[in-house]
Design goal:
alpha/beta, 18 helices, 5-stranded parallel β-sheet, NadA, globular, binds 1,3-dihydroxyacetonephosphate, binds iron/sulfur cluster
Length: 377
């Protein structure tokens, strides 16, 4: 029986991982785009090779346009690992900037322009909750070798926990390989925090009958013994941006145009992924549209900024948001306001570092093990 005390945990859990949150000075709040672009370009010219800007595919146009590299979480972690610049400015969310800090050398500094860019899904599996669940599940299955895998969308302390228990990190582009890696070494997987990516990966591997869910918010929920009988235990986390997509949206797109193709992110619900023509990471979505024939229609089931980028980048392809006006932007990604980018760059020109992401040394070492395992699979 689950004995975790939800009320007590809630007081210890927080959405924002860093209390060094620095707000944008008033003088930066109302810059118009022309002035801002000019100031960003001037600052970048002064900083030269000292700075590299990495941007996730979900970032706003005004961030993506200034980025040296734009990509999915996996590509960005590889770029961070290979970066030589003294400063890595991360256009993304906190867990991505943390991973960049873990992967880069100690002399390099990672800056997240706004510290409020916290992914709600990463906040759904706090290390404190996972510790409690782990104790129960491992007690319920004392003879099993359970390997924890955390999605990249998690904080450094959870990545460190996974490494400490023989596990690793994965992204949406390599989750299936991470599961295979884990089943080569153990007999069960605890996958955190995205139940949809976990379920979609289990299906990809033909293991859909081996799934159980662990709901950390439901102390009266399933018996740990029952859950621990399954080979794949999914943490009950999700992304609200992707949960919005439904099968009806796909049916509607196909009713409007029987030739339309549908591509969705694997954070979408199982039935949506099953009904789509293709499912894949944001890089797969970008590549698929880039390789489409002129005149083809592609409905995109992911965050709306990426859909808009694809419309701009590939005007020869008919790119549609899968659920029309109901498609969401990611509130966390949106916190990286271009005014913040202007500010952190101009502060660097003045030799001041703002909004630095610094993972605690003890977490860093272990989290690096979990990330390195992923980079090797
Ligand atoms: P990708 O790794 O596919 O870029 O996804 C990151 C993400 O946060 C999706 O919501
Ligand atoms: Fe997190 Fe969803 Fe935003 Fe991705 S889209 S960063 S999972 S909230």
């Amino acid at each position: 029986m689950v004995t975790m005390e939800t009320a007590e945990l809630e007081t210890d859990l927080s959405l924002f991982k860093y209390d060094s949150l620095e707000q944008l000075p008033a003088s930066y709040r109302d810059l118009d785009e022309a002035e801002r672009t000019d100031r960003i370009e001037t600052a970048l010219a002064e900083l030269g090779d000292d700075v590299v800007i990495l941007g996730h595919n979900y970032q706003r146009r005004e961030i993506v346009e200034h980025a040296d590299f734009v990509g999915d979480s996996y590509q960005l972690s590889k770029e961070a690992a290979e970066a030589d610049a003294e400063y890595v400015i991360f256009g993304g969310v906190t867990f991505m900037a943390e991973s960049a800090d873990i992967i880069t050398d100690d002399e390099q500094t990672v800056i997240l322009p706004s510290m409020e860019a916290s992914c709600p899904m990463a906040g759904m599996a706090e290390a404190l909750q996972v510790d409690a669940a782990w104790a129960e599940i491992t007690d319920a299955a004392p003879d099993a070798n359970i390997i924890p895998i955390t999605y990249m969308n998690s904080y450094a302390d959870l990545k460190a926990f996974c490494a400490s228990q023989g596990g690793l990190v994965c992204t949406s582009s390599n989750a299936h390989r991470a599961f295979e890696w884990a089943f080569d070494r153990g007999d069960k997987v605890l996958f955190l925090p995205d139940k949809h990516l976990g379920e979609n990966t289990a299906h990809r591997l033909g293991m859909e009958d081996a799934i159980a869910e662990w709901d950390p918010w439901d102390p009266e929920g399933k018996d740990a013994t029952e859950v621990a009988e399954s080979d794949i235990i999914l943490w009950d986390g999700y992304c609200q941006v992707h949960e919005r997509f439904r099968e009806e949206h796909i049916e509607q797109v196909r009713a409007d145009d029987p030739d339309a193709n549908v591509i969705v992110h694997p954070e979408c619900r199982r039935e949506v992924v099953e009904a789509a023509d293709v499912a894949g990471s944001t890089a797969t979505i970008c590549d698929t549209v880039a390789n489409a024939e002129p005149g083809e229609t592609w409905a995109i089931g992911t965050e709306i900024h990426l859909t808009r980028h694809l419309q701009r980048w590939h005007p020869e392809v008919n790119v549609l948001p899968l659920c029309g006006d109901a498609c969401m932007d990611c509130n966390a990604m949106r916190q990286i306001d271009p005014n913040y980018l202007t500010w952190v760059l101009e502060e660097l020109v003045a030799s001041r570092e703002r909004n630095v992401i610094e993972v605690a040394p003890d977490e860093k070492e272990l989290a690096q093990v979990a990330l390195d395992r992923m980079l090797e699979i």
